[in-house]
Amino acid sequence: MSLPEHLYADLDARLGDTDALLTSVFGGDDGRRQPVHTVYVPADGYDPGLPQRWGREALDLVEDNGGFESVCAAADLTGELADQVASRVRSKLESGPIEDLRLDFEDGYGNRGDDAEDADAVRAAEHLATAIGDSTAPAWYGLRFKCLEESTRRRGVRTLDLFLGTLVDAVGSLPTGLVITLPKVSTVDQVEAMVTVCAALETGHGLPTGSLGFEIQVETPQLIIGPDGRIPVARAIHAGAGRVTALHYGTYDYSASLQISAANQASDHPAADFAKQVMQVAVAGTTVHLSDGSTNLVPAGTREQVHRVWRVHAGLVHRALERGFYQGWDMHPGHLPTRYAVTFGFYRSGLQAAGGRLGDYLTRTTGTVMDEPATARALARYLQRGHACGAVDEAELIALAGVDAAGIAELARARSDTTAAQRRP
After folding, report:
1. Beta 244-249 vs 289-291: how paired, if at all?
2. The Cα angle at residue 373 between residues 283 and 386, in degrees rounded to 5
3. How far apart are CA 68 and CA 181, in angstroms?
4. Beta pairing partners, 214
5. Residue 194's closest CA among 159, 243, 141?
6. What is the pLDDT of residues 213-248, one digit of tens each?
7. Is 330 helix (H, G, I), strand (E, B) or coil?
8. CA 319 – CA 417 distance, rounded (Å)
9. 28: pLDDT confidence band, cut at 50, 70 and 90?
10. N or C: which end of the chain has fewer CB within 10 A?
11. Domain coordinates of the chain in residue numbers?
12. CATH 3.10.450.50: does it fit domain 37-349?
C-alpha cells in the first residue's frame, strides 16, 4: 500500500458535504405505502358514504356491461390470471374502492363566492371527521385548495385554514391520513410560500412542528423549465424543507399551456412524457412519490362505448406502471374496475419471475439472470408494492422468495449488498 493515511482523511473532509447530502436528501424510499390512485370529487359533493357509493356504482357498471370478463379483456388479461384478478377486484370494490380521496376546492369546484366556500370547507371537514371516526374514510384523504397565484391566493389559503381547523377540532388531533394538494405551481417561490403557510397553520392550530406536508401538482411548463433554463421542479422538492410528499402530473392544464388541441390532450402525449420524465429524475433518490394524471373519458353510454373507454383507461394505467408511475388520478366510478384490474394484473403477471429471481439472489443460487444489488432492490420494491395494494399475498412472497412481507420491505430499502445478504433465508 502506497497511499498515506492523511489522504483518506482528506477525502473524508472534502466529501463530507456530499456524504451528508446523500444521506439527508437522497436517502431513498422511506418505505411508506403509496396509493394506487387519487380520486377527485367536488368538495360540496362529498359525504361519508361516497366511497361506498362509488364501489357500488362501479360494480353495477361491471354487471351491466359484460361482467368482470369484459373488464379483464379490456385489461388484456386472460385465463387463470384473469380469474385471479377478477376476484380481487370484486373484493376491492366491495371493501375499499377508494384508496386516496381528494376533496376539490379548485377546478372541480370553481368560484362560488366566499360565503358558499366557507360553508363548504367547514361542512366537508365535518363530514370527513365523521368518516374518520366511523372508520369508513379511505386510507388517505384531504383537499386540493385554490392555487397561490394572486387571483386565488387569499381564497385558497382561507379554505385550507377553515378546513384544517374544523377537521382538527372535530377529530382531536391531526389525522394521519391527511393529504394537502397545492395546485398550479409555477415557481419555487410558491413552494417556499407554502412552507411558510404550513408553519403558520401548525402554530395557529397547535400542531407539532413539521407535521404538515403537501403534494405539488405539476401543471405548468414553467415548473419543468424555468426562464433561466434551469429545472424548477427539482429545486422545488428541496425548497419544500422536507414537507413535499409527492409530485402529481396535471394532464389537461399542462397540455393546454403548450397549446395542444383538446382532442390530443392525454397523459400519453409526447409532451406529457417529457414532463413526467423530468419529474421522475427530480424525485430519484428522495422520499417523494410520483403520480400520473387522469383521463377525461368516461365509461358511459352503450356497452361498446363503455368497453372502448375501459380499453383506453386500461392502456394508460398499464403504460404508466411500466414507466414507473404507480399512482394516477381517477375521476369517475367507472375508472375503478380497470384501475384495479390493470394494477393487480401488473403485479401478478410478474410475480413468479420477480419472486424467483429475488429468491435466487438471496440464496446465491445461479439462475438465468445475474442480478446486481440495485436490481434486487427493484425486485423487492415490485413485490412490496404488489403486496401492499392487495395483488399479492404474503404466503406467495414466502413461497417464491423465501422472505415475508416485512423482510421484502426491508430489502426494498436496503442500500447495500450486505444488508440484502443478511436477509437471505
Report:
1. parallel
2. 65
3. 33
4. 244
5. 243
6. 999 999 999 999 999 999 999 999 999 999 999 999
7. strand
8. 31
9. confident
10. N
11. 37-349, 351-422
12. no
